[in-house]
Structures are given as C-alpha cells and as structure tokens.
Design goal:
Elements: H1 2-23, H2 45-51, E1 55-65, H3 85-93, E2 103-116, E3 121-125, H4 126-129, E4 134-138, E5 144-153, E6 158-163, E7 186-191, E8 199-210, E9 220-223, E10 235-237, E11 243-250, E12 261-265, H5 266-279, E13 285-286, E14 289-293, H6 296-301, E15 310-316, E16 331-335, E17 338-339, H7 345-351, E18 358-365, E19 368-375, E20 377-378, H8 379-385, E21 406-411, E22 414-418, H9 421-427, E23 436-441, H10 446-449, E24 457-461, E25 464-465, H11 469-481, E26 486-492, E27 498-504
Antiparallel strand pairs: 1-2, 1-4, 2-3, 3-6, 4-5, 5-6, 7-8, 7-10, 8-9, 9-12, 10-11, 11-12, 13-20, 14-15, 15-16, 15-21, 16-17, 16-18, 18-19, 21-22, 22-23, 23-24, 24-25, 24-26, 26-27
Length: 506
C-alpha cells in the first residue's frame, strides 16, 4: 500500500512539473542549466569475468611464541579430584605447560593480483604478509600454490611474491595510468573480504591525493567502492580493466565498509613493484635536506606572491647538496620539471627519481627564482648509515633520520652551522668559545630585530647547551610543541662576551 501511494505521489509531482513547464512557456530558462549527468555502466559482468582469474586470495600463517617469566600465567593448583582438572590440563598442555609460555599459529587473509603469468609474480600489501612464516596463494580455479617473498617496501606498504606457475595457466593484469583518473570516474574493486573469495564491488573515485599519515609518500586514491577486511592488497580497476590502485586502507568505526577506502595509485606502485621485482629492494633518490611547509607568513617574508613549495630548513652533512647548491632558506618550487605545490610533494617526487640522475631544481632564494642542478644520492644507502629513518621535518624521512647530522640549518630567520676551524677563521671566533655559529641573518626577521649578526655563537637555548645545528632545530621544535611563544638564547660574541636574547617564534 505504501509503495502504491509513493508511486502515485511521484506521478503527481511529475505531472505538476510538466504543467508548470507548459504554463510557463514565456519564462526565461537560464542558459547555465546544469548538464544532464551521464549514466553509469549498465553492467560490469564481462569486465569482471575477465579479471577475476588474476585476483588471488593470500593466506599466511605465523608462529607466535607465548610469554615466559612474570608475564606468563602458571597452571593453577587444584585440589586432587577437582572436576576442573581435565579442563585446565588440556588448556595448559596446548601452551607447553611446563614453560608457561608455549606458542600458537596465527593465520590471516588478504588479497593480491598477478602481474606476470609466466614468472608467477604477484603484488599485495606488505602488511598482509608481514612476519609470515608460510604464504599460500589461492586462485579462483581452486589451485593453491606456495609463495616466496621477493621483496617488500614498508614506506608504501607494497610486497611482491612469486609462485611457481609450472603446469598452471595463470591470468595476469597490467598497471594503468592513475594520473588519468578523475574524481567521479567509475572504478571496480576485486578482493577477498572476510575470506569470502573473489568479490566485486563498484564505485567511483571520490578524491585524489589523500594524505592519511600512513607513510612519507601518501598520495592515495579515495573510493566509495566497498572495501572490507581481507580486501587489502587487491586491485582497483578502471573500466578498461587496468589496475590503477592497490586497495590498502579504510576508515571504519565498525570494521566494515562505510564508503571511504584508500588505494595506492599505480603511478607510485608500478615503480616500486618494478624495483622490488628486479632488485628485491627499492632504490630511491635522495636529496639530503630537511624541509618544512611554506606558510603565508613565510611566503610574505620571502617576497613570494603565494605560499607554495617546500622550505629548506636544513642540509644533511655529506648529502648530495652539501656543496652549497641548495641552501637553508631556499624554497623548492619545481623539481625535475614537476611542480612542488606543497611540502609533501617533494619527498614523493624525489623518491621516484632515479639514483644518480642530474636534475634541475627551481628555487626561490632571497626573493628571486633561480635554477640549480643537483645529482641525487640513494636514500637506502643513507638509511643503512643512519640509525633511524623517519623524520617529520625531513625531506619525507629522506635525510636518513632524526639522528642524521646536519651541516647547516635555517631557523628563526637565522642560518646556523657547525663551529669548526673554517668558521672560526672566517668570523674570527676565539678558540675557547663553543656552540653553533650564526652564518647569516635574514633581513627584517625576528633575529635581525634583536641585533643578532653573522659570527655570533648560540651557546644555549632555554638554558640548555647546543653544539650542532640539529641541536638548535630540535630545541626550537621542542619549545614550539610546549606552546612557547619566545625562545631564550644565550649568545657569545666573537671575543666571548655573553648576552641573553629573546626571539619570537610565532
């Protein structure tokens, strides 16, 4: 009855609309009327049928050891003949009861897809196979093959596996161009949600260039195609059957799909997969700078018309640009012909560039644009030399980490550097003075207002001694995190006279 009433109401409204149009024949119809939206695909059955064979279910198992010592739960002492004796015996024997620790098998499921049928190369997410002891790949035709790990990349959450395809005919898919995808384009996700086997969902590209703070190269495609647990590592297809994304993450309070899923774009994934397949590891370009966003205030102080690019805050000692080609205070606005719209663009573009390549970098230095040429180093080589890797103020972690030494840095309108023999000679600094030397002071900066000059030496910040440019940056960063508005500096003149100066940090 309700449906009938609703149908009648709809019909009546349509009739009323038609009457209004006829009655208002003399009315002016706006020329900017919105275009009639196009229809979605009538069916993706043929497309799905040709792709399902290339999408696989990945099953992993891992042996997790129990805890021993104070954290272990010992078997309780029960009265002889207790009715609970058998129950506890069974439970604790399964945990290697003598040690109170034991071990158990943990299994997980994910998705993946074949990109090379002859070699048996399969792509998935790193988190799907991380720490796995055994990896099995289940195909849509019921075949199960053991897989070996070719290589992983934790920064992009990509892993490459290999199976022996001998005696089996595999189906492969290829990467498409994610750069061609527009918001509103139809996409199809295929995977194994909750271990149910090949499932197909349809949706659109909801957004692009999403940063979900999962890694230094975040540039996700957002889609409303249903993605659930178990879909991780599965492909996101365009309507030509090309992989334009690897489904990786969802936002969900309940664990199920609410129409907000994220995929690694093929533009980023294809290069990583190619390197993992060839070398078993990634070989990323490295510039060796610490960077920070260009705010409106910073842009104004640097005579820039708009806030864009990545501000160089520090130069890594021994890095590719520790030769003066790029300096603290420079703003990188274009790298190898690609625009740097905001800070996070630079790490990704640099990482995608070949190691050893000489590239043109367009910078803004003291209000003027100029092009410098730099030769890229290798990020992973620098990683191995440093103890850690990530750093929020770094070139996407590309300086080798928070502990990597900094040759020079830009902070509070000052350029600071190591107080070495060269600096002592240049500025005439006495040998008994220690700290960090100020090598340049920006005009109209907070430091300039306080009378700080090149050759001054920063010995303390907020009553803590500093001896390297990194110490200065870390101390200023800590004060900002504490909500401080000013920084108290102890400065030494060239002859050793001390004075305190307070500098604004807002």
């Amino acid at each position: 009855m309700t449906s009938k009433i609703l149908s009648q109401a709809v019909a009546a409204s349509r009739a009323a609309g038609l009457a209004l149009l006829l009655a208002g024949a003399t009315a002016v119809i706006p020329s900017y009327a919105a275009p009639v939206p196009g229809h979605g695909p009538e069916s993706v059955a043929d497309l799905a049928q040709g792709l399902l064979g290339a999408v696989v279910n990945i099953s992993t198992s891992q042996t997790v050891k129990g805890t021993e010592g104070p954290g272990a739960v010992p078997m309780p002492q029960l009265p002889e003949g207790s009715p609970f004796q058998d129950f506890f015996d069974d439970f604790f024997k399964n945990r290697d009861g003598d040690k109170g620790g034991g071990s158990q098998k943990v299994q997980s499921l994910g998705s993946g897809f074949v990109i090379d049928a002859e070699k048996g190369i399969i792509v998935t997410n790193n988190h799907v196979i991380a720490d796995a002891d055994d990896i099995e790949v289940n195909f849509s035709d019921g075949i199960t093959l053991k897989a070996t790990l070719v290589g992983t990349d934790t920064k992009t959450d990509i892993a490459v596996l290999k199976v022996d395809p001998k005696g089996h005919k595999l189906t492969a898919v290829k990467f498409g161009d994610s750069n061609k995808m527009r918001i509103g384009d139809w996409v199809m996700a295929v995977g194994n949600p909750f271990g149910l086997g090949g499932s197909v969902t349809l949706g659109i590209v909801s957004a692009r260039n999403r940063d979900i703070n999962s890694g230094p190269y975040d540039d996700f495609i957002q889609t409303d195609a249903a993605i659930n647990r178990g879909n991780s590592g599965g492909p996101l297809f365009n309507m030509e059957g090309e992989v334009i994304g690897i489904n990786t993450a969802i936002i969900s309070p309940s664990g199920g799909s609410i129409g907000i899923g994220f995929s690694i774009p093929s533009q980023l994934a294809a290069g990583v997969v190619d390197q993992l397949t060839q070398y078993g590891e990634t070989r990323r370009g490295w510039l060796g700078v610490r960077i920070q966003p260009v705010t409106d205030d910073i842009a104004e102080s640097l005579d820039m018309a708009t806030a864009k690019g990545a501000l160089v805050a520090g130069i890594m000692k021994g890095g590719p640009v520790d030769n003066g080609s790029i300096q603290p205070g420079d703003v990188i606005i274009k790298f190898d012909g690609k625009d740097i719209r905001e800070m996070r663009d630079l790490p990704r573009i640099v990482a995608e560039s070949p190691v050893g390549k000489a590239v043109d970098v367009l910078i803004v230095r003291k209000g003027k644009e100029q092009t410098v040429k730099v030769t890229l180093g290798r990020l992973e080589d620098n990683d191995k030399a440093a103890a850690t890797e990530e750093g929020s103020g770094d070139e996407g972690g590309q300086n080798g980490g928070e502990n990597a030494p900094i040759a020079t840095a830009s902070v509070l309108g000052m350029t600071v550097g190591e107080l070495n023999d060269e600096a002592r000679t240049k500025f005439g600094i006495a040998p008994d003075i220690s700290g960090v030397v100020v090598t340049d002071v920006a005009k109209d900066s907070a430091a300039a207002e306080r009378g700080i000059q090149p050759g001054d030496v920063i010995t303390e910040i907020a009553q803590e001694s500093v001896s390297t440019p990194k110490d200065v940056m870390d101390r200023i960063g800590a004060l900002k995190e504490q909500g401080r508005k000013n920084a108290l500096l102890m400065l030494a003149s060239k002859t050793g006279e001390l004075r305190f100066v307070t500098i604004r940090m807002d």
